[in-house]
């Protein structure tokens, strides 16, 4: 039987809700075709669902549309706390690589963004938030200007938006308690970070900037889920494997929250990346931990 979380715990703060999370998974995974770049109708089905959800909680919700090879793709953007000057972006991509459900990669990160919209709603926010569902993060568009996050970061830069920082949520639902279930791009890291895939990681580059430094500290201070922090040169393999890449490229301070994907999850980019492999209670705690870190930022 699944643990059902209440909306408020005994410490008095809102929590991610497993019933909501399961409902989101059902809507995102059960499209007519796999939600990759070849299947525009399935991508649009998810984008419409995200927009409908955002509209319940946001001040403003809209599609950011752009054309690639004659097709129209869409980011979905929700704005909350619009009365504030400084912007924090929180995003996760909704497309998949090839023919797979992509439960961890990246329905899990997208659902984190959806739940944060609900948790932020009705709160006195200190920042203006843009919560974004990104399209075209996956190959063949990764590292190109066709990535949804590139289009979004570029638009913020061109508008001279005052962006405090950005957080990318990419694969936040897979955990392993077995020893040697966690690998690293540099083997020496296992001595410092451990060999069990039982933690969530916050990833930054050297020279990460004020926002990433402050957010990472607040995130690691929360005790919902074990946190490991990694800051390394941008050239380290895997450090920029998500949408935060484009915010770094435009000079913004940005962090990645991840279960480390292919360094842990054997289902990465495979048909076996299904909801049955997701640790729902732990994923909910990760979302709680992100929420708590953000609302405590100064």
Write up this protein.
By secondary structure, the protein is an alpha/beta fold. The chain has a single domain (18-295), classed as Zn peptidases (Aminopeptidase). It is built from eight helices and eight strands. It has helices spanning 18-29, 40-55, 103-120, 148-158, 189-193, 210-221, 244-249, 280-295; strands at residues 60-68, 71-80, 87-93, 128-134, 163-169, 200-205, 227-232, 254-258. Helix 1 packs across helix 3 (103-120), helix 3 crosses helix 8 and helix 6 (210-221) packs across helix 8. It is globular. Residues 1-12 have low confidence and may be disordered.
Note the run of SSEs as H and E.
HHEEEHEHEHEHEHEH
Largest sheet strand order: 1-2-4-3-5-8-6-7
What is the gyration radius calculated from CA atoms? 18 Å
Please report the number of helical segments.
8
Structural class: alpha/beta
As residue ranges, the low-confidence spans are 1-12
Which range best describes the helical content: under 10%, 10-25%, 25-40%, 40-55%, 55-70% or over 70%? 25-40%
What distance separates the N and C termini?
39 Å
Give a quick account of the main beta sheet: strands, pairing sense, barrel closure. 8 strands, mixed
Overall pLDDT metric: 93
Q: CATH superfamily assignment?
A: Zn peptidases
Q: Give the total of beta strands.
A: 8
- Strand proportion, as a percent range, falls in 15-25%
CATH architecture label name: 3-Layer(aba) Sandwich
